[in-house]
Design goal:
Elements lengths: L3 E3 L3 H11 L5 H19 L5 E7 L4 E7 L3 E8 L3 H10 L4 E2 L1 E6 L6 E7 L7 E10 L3 H12 L5 E8 L1 H10 L4 E7 L2 E2 L5 E2 L5 H6 L3
Parallel strand pairs: 1-10, 4-5, 4-6, 4-8, 8-9, 9-10
Antiparallel strand pairs: 2-3, 6-7, 11-12
This protein binds 1-O-pyrophosphono-5-O-phosphono-alpha-D-ribofuranose and uracil.
Catalytic activity: UMP + diphosphate = 5-phospho-alpha-D-ribose 1-diphosphate + uracil
Keywords: Allosteric enzyme, Glycosyltransferase, GTP-binding, Magnesium, Nucleotide-binding, Transferase
GO molecular function: GTP binding; magnesium ion binding; uracil phosphoribosyltransferase activity
Length: about 210
């Protein structure tokens, strides 16, 4: 089974409270979502492998460390995942960006895929799939399916708020994927929203409601 990790760094938790607050407007919501994504990726990349590299400083020779292993890519699940991309790129500016368009039918809660555009070497990259919300888990599972169908073999799922139902579903269907969240919330309500959650992430990011 994939690992489920809550990143409870005090800065992440403080900023998450700002996002949850219904008084937080679109501008601040966007800024803070990206700040949390940046902090989360900082924590998640602690285990990246390093190798030695010889360089010349202005004074002499030195052996420094360089990130080894696969290159990275960030894959937002549209729309709301876009709200985390800039934060990730602030830390890993050379990462490539793939996009997966997914919307959840409001009545059935079933996910629907409408767009996929990925780096051509997706099979050679470590992927961070980002989406603020993991609710029923349907969208995340369908996004992971879409990636694996195209050759992806190293995927981590990074969400701001997770519901127990969604974590269970992803762990059952994709035990190869580790999940990272800023919070594990209580439950889903009858409309499929996370309680207490932060509302509709896409609408709050883009001001569409
Ligand atoms: C939201 C959210 C996730 C999905 C989570 O997207 O950003 O992608 O719902 O729900 P699930 O785990 O039950 O599938 P939404 O479908 O509202 O689309 P949007 O990002 O375009 O607003
Ligand atoms: N999508 C959201 O944006 N919020 C939720 O609480 C659940 C799904």
């Amino acid at each position: 089974m994939g690992k489920f990790t809550i990143l409870n760094h005090p800065l992440i938790q403080h900023k998450l409270t700002i996002l949850r607050d219904k008084k937080t407007g679109t501008k601040d919501f966007r800024e803070v979502a990206n700040e949390i994504a940046e902090l989360m990726v900082y924590e998640i990349t602690r285990d990246l492998p390093l190798h030695d590299v010889k360089i010349q400083t202005p004074i002499g020779e030195a052996v420094g460390k360089e990130i080894a292993g696969k290159k990275l890519a960030v894959v937002p699940i549209l729309r709301a995942g876009l709200g985390m991309v800039d934060g990730v790129l602030r830390l890993i500016p050379a990462a490539k960006v793939g996009h997966i368009g997914m919307y959840r039918d409001e009545k059935t809660l079933e996910p629907h895929e409408y767009f996929v555009k990925l780096p051509s070497d997706v099979d050679q990259r470590d992927l961070f799939v980002v989406d603020p919300m993991l609710a029923t888990g349907g969208s995340a599972n369908m996004a992971i399916d879409a990636l694996e169908k195209r050759g992806a073999n190293s995927i981590r799922l990074v969400v701001l708020v997770a519901a127990p139902e969604g974590v269970k579903k992803v762990q059952e269907e994709h035990p190869e994927v580790d999940i990272y969240a800023a919070s594990l919330d209580d439950h889903l309500n009858k409309d499929g929203y996370i309680v207490p959650g932060l509302g509709d992430a896409g609408d709050r990011l883009f001001g569409t409601k």
